[in-house]
Amino acid sequence: MHQCHLKYLFRNLATLLLLCFLSIAIAILSAVIASAQTLEGAAQQQPQDGRPTVVAPPERTPAVVARPSELECSGQIEAAPVSTGLEIVGAQQEQEQRVFAEGDYLFIGGGAQQGLRAGQELSVVRPRGQFRSPLSAKRGSLGIFTQEVGRVRIVELRGEVAVALVNQSCDSILLGDLLRPVPQRVAAVRRPETNLERFASPTGRQTGRIVLSRDAREMISKDQVVFIDLGAEDNIKAGDYLTIFRPVGTGNITRFRDKEITSNAKRGFESERFRGGKFSNQSQRVRNPQDDTFSETVNTPEIKERRPAMPRKVVGEVVVLSVQARTATAVITRVSQEVHTGDYVESQ
Of the four listed, 33, 45, 72, 109, which is most buried by Cβ atoms within 10 Å? Predict the structure, then answer.
């Protein structure tokens, strides 16, 4: 009986080993077939002359000079605002809030009779009045400063009222804001950057000034929107590059005193025992080195008055986004330091 059990056990073990061997053989054969197919496909992709195929990387989307937040919310100083007669007259939650933003439902005074239709997008603008600047050499008004505060999409028409959903907010939207067709703007493709020449000589081309920033800041930097007093009348076009510069020693927001704060020497510095400490380490040189240490020193205004013409200081670069009659809206693309309202711009 015992021998019968052993025979049965050996028979099952042999069957199990045979099955394992067959599984391994099938796996190896499948791998060989797959490898052969891969090599065959690669050979078919090779050109007839036997040279390897070069696969080019996918093309990258060209970088642009402005993001949508700058391009679509820039605002402008325009000669005359476009009037459509469309106004925000109410909101779904007007009893709970006075300012509105993305996701809020607004009511527009106008329906199908004003040409509105479901799905239409409109720009929300806020004219702020005539803009004049003492920084500009141009006389009179430069135009009407108009903010772009958002965009809405018409979702439903209800008689003489249209229901709109705010799908983009650049600033708080208020009742009374106006609506107009969405402007068609395309940001220029960013050109390859070169070193910003900090002391570049003038080109002799058109010059103007930064008269305002979008957020009314006096110190501005990269990617911020500014308004310049050069426009269509000065042959400025969207996509133009301009250099931002200022004369050396001008343009600072904070004024520093030109007169030195210490004298060259003062009696009483030294002690009774240790004679010394007579010279200040913050003073200018004496006018005549042969004179006494308490004699008159040179001063900063004197040096500036008799020095030759200084190189101008290049502080950045802007690209024009849109152009109006007397002004243009631009975005700062490069800076070497902070930019000030009132800095000069020059066409490149």
Answer: 72
